[in-house]
From TrEMBL:
<comment type="similarity">
    <text>Belongs to the queuine tRNA-ribosyltransferase family.</text>
</comment>
<keyword id="KW-0819">tRNA processing</keyword>
<feature type="binding site">
    <location>
        <position position="220"/>
    </location>
    <ligand>
        <name>substrate</name>
    </ligand>
</feature>
<feature type="binding site">
    <location>
        <begin position="89"/>
        <end position="93"/>
    </location>
    <ligand>
        <name>substrate</name>
    </ligand>
</feature>
<feature type="binding site">
    <location>
        <position position="313"/>
    </location>
    <ligand>
        <name>Zn(2+)</name>
    </ligand>
</feature>
<dbReference type="InterPro" id="IPR002616">
    <property type="entry name" value="tRNA_ribo_trans-like"/>
</dbReference>
<dbReference type="GO" id="GO:0005829">
    <property type="term" value="C:cytosol"/>
</dbReference>
<keyword id="KW-0479">Metal-binding</keyword>
<feature type="binding site">
    <location>
        <position position="143"/>
    </location>
    <ligand>
        <name>substrate</name>
    </ligand>
</feature>
<dbReference type="Pfam" id="PF01702">
    <property type="entry name" value="TGT"/>
</dbReference>
<dbReference type="InterPro" id="IPR004803">
    <property type="entry name" value="TGT"/>
</dbReference>
<feature type="binding site">
    <location>
        <position position="192"/>
    </location>
    <ligand>
        <name>substrate</name>
    </ligand>
</feature>
<comment type="subunit">
    <text>Homodimer. Within each dimer, one monomer is responsible for RNA recognition and catalysis, while the other monomer binds to the replacement base PreQ1.</text>
</comment>
<feature type="region of interest" description="RNA binding">
    <location>
        <begin position="251"/>
        <end position="257"/>
    </location>
</feature>
<feature type="active site" description="Nucleophile">
    <location>
        <position position="270"/>
    </location>
</feature>
<dbReference type="GO" id="GO:0046872">
    <property type="term" value="F:metal ion binding"/>
</dbReference>
<feature type="binding site">
    <location>
        <position position="308"/>
    </location>
    <ligand>
        <name>Zn(2+)</name>
    </ligand>
</feature>
Length: 373
């Protein structure tokens, strides 16, 4: 991976990340392709939207169709036909959230499949083996995620495990690279610690001392804590992260969350929100959210967003989208998802231009001013 900082503006960073499959300009939002596809869209749609990186889910792809099958098709790139970069998470969050009785121990996580109830065990090494098969450009390591709020004892235990697993993961990855495995794949560690400043500092310092990691993520946020607590935790944590490597905030969030955390020095984001909200009738616009289900849009000739240049807005009316949603037409999912993903990607492009022009403060003010009208 090549990484360089192109510009900064009031804490916000514009960077360039080069992987084996694409050049990624930050700040960047990574659409979530849980099953190897962004829901309702295909590889061509993502290329038309200009996506340089999407996220695949190790847990889901491990269970179905299986990483060995995907490897036979040339990894995620060959299987999905999306030629740009993939980031794959470790699957630890899904093992934690989808299994009724997932159980971490000192060496890994035991969980039951949400599909058929079969029992499985993830270790720092096994999740990397799965991701080697998937051929992702960025691999996330296994971490011990805890629900918030939680006891100090449990959060400290999660940090101890996460650090232990991070050491095992980086040692294993370096040994595999010596064997010619994963040589074009990059590896990120995940900082834990809840919203406790001392725990976040402890986790960040322990993980960032492992300098062979290609980047670092902030995990365990956007899990129910107040937004302001999340922002303060990110601002506190980034000071302990190296300036010369990518910073990734996992599972966040709304357009406002992205703007606030870009200002706090974050480079990379992912969230299911644009596609999930699209399917449920909520569309993101320059002026805030729009609920396309409302009767007021039944005869509305306007596009979703007059300021938007996406395929959906250039070709279809709010009335048509309202009709498709009410008629439960599958086409609605595609057109709405195209718009929401375009909105998020365009917001990141506009943010980058503002940083390059050293105009971040004005850009942020304008972003909020439009949404308050």
């Amino acid at each position: 991976m090549e990484f360089k900082i192109d510009a900064t503006s009031n804490g916000a960073r514009a960077c360039t990340i080069k992987t084996a499959h694409s050049t990624i300009l930050t700040p960047v939002f990574m659409p979530v392709g849980t099953q190897g596809t962004v829901k309702a869209l295909d590889a061509n749609d993502m290329l038309e939207l200009g996506a340089k990186i999407i996220l695949g889910n190790t847990y889901h792809l491990y269970l179905r169709p299986g990483s060995k099958l995907i490897k036979k098709f040339g990894g995620l790139h060959g299987f999905s036909k999306f030629p740009n970069s993939f980031l794959t998470d470790s699957g630890g969050f899904q093992a934690f959230s989808l299994s009724d009785n997932s159980k971490p121990d000192e060496n890994g996580i035991t969980f039951k499949s949400h599909i058929d109830g079969s029992k499985h065990y993830f270790t720092p090494q096994s999740v990397l083996n799965t991701q080697y098969d998937l051929g992702s450009d960025i691999m996330m390591i296994l971490d011990d995620l805890v629900a918030l709020p939680n006891t100090k004892e449990r959060i400290q235990k999660s940090i101890e495990r996460t650090t232990k697993w991070a050491k095992e993961a980086i040692e294993y990855h370096m040994s595999q690279k010596e064997k010619g495995i994963g040589v074009n794949q990059n590896i990120f560690a995940i900082i834990q610690g809840g919203t406790d400043k001392e725990f976040r500092k402890m986790s960040a310092e322990q993980l960032c001392a492992m300098t062979d990691y290609d980047g670092y993520a902030i995990g365990g946020l956007s899990v129910g804590e107040p937004n302001q607590d999340m922002y303060e935790t990110v601002e506190w944590t980034t000071q302990f992260m190296p300036k010369d490597k990518p910073r990734y905030l996992m599972g966040v969030g709304t357009p406002e969350d992205l703007i606030e955390n870009i200002e706090r020095g974050v480079d990379m984001f992912d969230c299911v929100m644009p596609t999930r909200n699209a399917r449920n009738g909520t569309l993101f616009t320059t002026f805030g959210r729009l609920n396309i289900k409302k009767a007021e849009f039944k005869e509305d000739t306007n596009p979703i967003d007059n300021a938007c240049e996406c395929y959906t807005c250039k070709n279809f009316s709010r009335a048509y989208l309202n009709h498709l949603f009410r008629a439960s037409e599958i086409t609605y999912f595609r057109l709405a998802s195209i718009h929401n993903i375009h909105y998020y990607l365009q917001l990141m492009k506009d943010a980058r231009e503002a940083i390059l022009a050293n105009n971040w403060t004005e850009f942020k003010k304008e972003f909020y001013a439009k949404r308050s009208k």
